[in-house]
Amino acid sequence: AQHAYATLRDKPATSRDGVTLSLHMNAGLMADLPSLPKCGAVGVGLFRTELQFLIRTTVPKRTDLAALYAHILDSAGTKPVIFRTLDIGSDKVLPYMKRGEEPNPALGWRAIRVGLDRPGILRMQVQALLRGSKGRPLHLMFPFVAEYTEFEAARELVLREAARERELGHVPPASLRIGAMLETPSLAYAPDKFFELADFISIGGNDLKQFFFAADRENEKVRRRYDTLSVSFLTFLEEIVARCAAHGTPLSFCGEDAGRPVEALAFAIVGFRNLSMRPASIGPVKALLRQVEIAELRALFDETRAEGHRSFRPALEGWLEERGF
Ligand code: PEP
Ligand code: MG
């Protein structure tokens, strides 16, 4: 099967009726980068930066981080890399950071909340990213933004650091694009100015889904209880697509579901055109997409919703099975 997908590598991710998706890969280690040319991804849609912090017993040094980020960008060549700033707390705990016990860590002091309350580490990481870019384009995004003002504050922190780096004589990035991860339902209903200010938005579907259904992604008893293809969740995603489209804000989906071919198809049906996934998923997602007509499946989704079904899965999988996919 790997071989069959290899022949697809340089073919476009385009459906039979001409809907083209940009397929990006997720990464978190330097060791992931060799997959980029091999899997046919157009870039790294999510680089999770916490691993470098989690594998140590002390805070990493800025110079080491800057060298690592430069190395990642060197390896990616002309393909863009979106770095997500540190996402700690909840399931990702730093041994050297003091934090109290929390009754509900997933709803607790994590990600950008920590970054804004204790900006020392975030500032250091942003400096390392700016230096590591060495005059190349830099894309960064903040995890777990729940309110517009959090994005605004984090963005201003980055702009301040960029100005300071310039004063210090460091080469600025060729361009700086600052985005937000949409991982809490609240951000989907942020004021218009959020959608205007964000250079791009990336849905962290793993978290968004757990908060949409109030079902812990770590809890085996409930984590599979609610379907990603439920009509309610797809309708919610469709609303986010519409808000982003109204403001011209680029949108992508980067949770694990993006790498499941049937789910990826459903996201294309509700309007997503950018997905980011594990490198090994690019081939299977592309292979399925190339065999279908999105407009036809869109009609199937509208029909399923109008008929009041709970999930789009039986209709979509039935349709695929009938055609031998
Ligand atoms: C997500 O929540 O979907 C996501 C991409 O981030 P993580 O899985 O690292 O929380
Ligand atoms: Mg997340």
From TrEMBL:
The chain holds residues 426 to 750 of 752 of the full protein. It is found in: Cytoplasm. GO terms for molecular function: kinase activity; metal ion binding; phosphoenolpyruvate-protein phosphotransferase activity. One of its GO terms (biological process) is phosphoenolpyruvate-dependent sugar phosphotransferase system. Its main location: cytoplasm. GO terms for cellular component: cytoplasm. This is phosphoenolpyruvate--protein phosphotransferase. It comes from the Bacteria. Belongs to the PEP-utilizing enzyme family. Keywords: Cytoplasm, Kinase, Magnesium, Metal-binding, Phosphotransferase system, Pyruvate, Sugar transport, Transferase, Transport.
